[in-house]
Amino acid sequence: MITDPMLFRFTASGPTPEAAFAAFAAQDGTEPHDPFRPRADLSKVTRVTVADSRDRLRADGGFDGPDAGPLSEDDADWLADRLIEDYDPIVRSGAAAVLLRAPGGEPTWIFFGWSARGE
Questions:
Q1: CB of 98 within 8 A of CB of 76?
Q2: 84 to each of 1, 2, 30, 108, 111, how far by Cα in Å?
Q3: Mapping DSSP to helix (H, G, I), strand (E, B) and coil, where does residue 113 land?
Q4: 71, 67, 73, 69: which is closest to 53 by C-alpha?
Q5: Do strands 48-50 and 95-100 pair parallel, antiparallel, or not at all (unpaired)?
Q6: Measured CA angle at 84 (ends 108, 95), to 5 deg
Q7: Which of 81, 32, 37 is nearest to 57 (CA)?
Q8: What is the pLDDT of residues 57-97, one digit of tens each?
Q9: Helix %, strand %, coil % for the chain, to 5?
């Protein structure tokens, strides 16, 4: 069995980030193997951590809101990119999540991080 770290990023909704991640991972795990569309093995993720700090966005001058509040999808993508590029501790040990600003319904989260892929 060969395992390589693989980046994943997706959005999912649920009452908590853990519940949203678990539901997405369970559904993703039932998809058939496709050699032309590799996917991270989300079953290897052991923890979901919410990225509450908006310091990077503030430093860039693009955000002046409260920590842990919802972000627009563009802001969430930008923050995820910075955390991934810096190999921030929040994405080293599992999945990181950022709350997205979405109308009504359950909260929506953007998830990103690395997982091992089995061959």
A1: yes
A2: 26, 23, 27, 20, 11
A3: strand
A4: 67
A5: parallel
A6: 50
A7: 81
A8: 777 766 666 777 788 888 889 889 888 888 888 887 678 99
A9: 30, 25, 40
